[in-house]
């Protein structure tokens, strides 16, 4: 009679362990090292015009931009733009695959939403961008919230093309 109880308890323990490792309550370290999944309708879009290029994450053909990276050909410099809630720190905090960087930003009221429009400058060779270039995804941190931006299959090459263009 003790054997069925032990089997039932070990099955329950395994089921609870599986729920704890796959459920929404993952800790910060698990969230910051795992690759995010694409979000329906949102993707990375590359626009080139002469010596200028823009890599933007958002909805195609809309004002719904989550983050934008702009550069001049072979400059190695990036202009960053992102939205943030009212009262947020004036910085753009980025992460890709565990590499993070904070860029001091200028803020102005957003014309698209109730928050702020942030702009900052960065080097294309910074470790967070090199990791982004390899992995294809980037996350923006706002306070303690991580907003990951992953490409859909077939669009990750746009990230590499952008960085190859920027130098």
- CATH class descriptor of the largest domain: Mainly Beta
CATH topology of the largest domain: Immunoglobulin-like
Strand order of the largest sheet: 1-2-3-4-8-7
Shape: globular
Distance between the termini: 71 Å
Q: Which range does the strand content fall in? A: 35-45%
CATH architecture of the largest domain: Sandwich
H/E element order: HHEEEEEEEEHEEH
For the largest beta-sheet, the strand count, sense and barrel status come to: 6 strands, antiparallel
Helix content: 25-40%
Number of strands: 10
Mean pLDDT: 83
Overall structural class, as computed from helix and strand content, comes to alpha+beta
Low-confidence stretches: 1-32
Number of domains: 2
SS element count, helices: 4
Q: Using only CA atoms, what is the Rg? A: 20 Å
Q: Which secondary structure elements does this structure contain, and how are they paired or packed?
A:
Blueprint: H1 2-22, H2 28-33, E1 42-49, E2 52-59, E3 65-72, E4 77-84, E5 91-96, E6 99-104, E7 106-109, E8 116-123, H3 127-135, E9 138-142, E10 145-149, H4 157-166
Antiparallel strand pairs: 1-2, 2-3, 3-4, 4-8, 5-6, 5-9, 7-8, 9-10
């Amino acid at each position: 009679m003790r054997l069925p109880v032990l089997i039932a308890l070990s099955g329950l323990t395994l089921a609870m362990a599986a729920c704890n490792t796959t459920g929404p309550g993952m800790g910060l370290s698990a969230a910051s090292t795992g690759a995010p999944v694409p979000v329906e309708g949102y993707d990375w879009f590359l626009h080139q015009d002469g010596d200028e290029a823009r890599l933007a994450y958002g909805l195609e053909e809309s004002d719904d931009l989550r983050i934008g990276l702009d550069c001049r050909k072979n400059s190695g410099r990036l202009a960053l733009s992102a939205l943030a809630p009212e009262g947020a720190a004036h910085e753009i905090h980025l992460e890709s695959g565990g590499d993070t960087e904070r860029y001091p930003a200028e803020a102005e009221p957003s014309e698209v939403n109730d928050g702020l429009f942030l702009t900052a400058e960065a080097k294309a060779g910074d470790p967070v961008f090199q990791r982004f270039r390899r992995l294809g995804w980037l996350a923006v941190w706002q306070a303690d919230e991580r907003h990951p931006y992953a490409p859909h299959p077939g669009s990750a090459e746009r990230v590499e093309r952008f960085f190859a263009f920027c130098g």
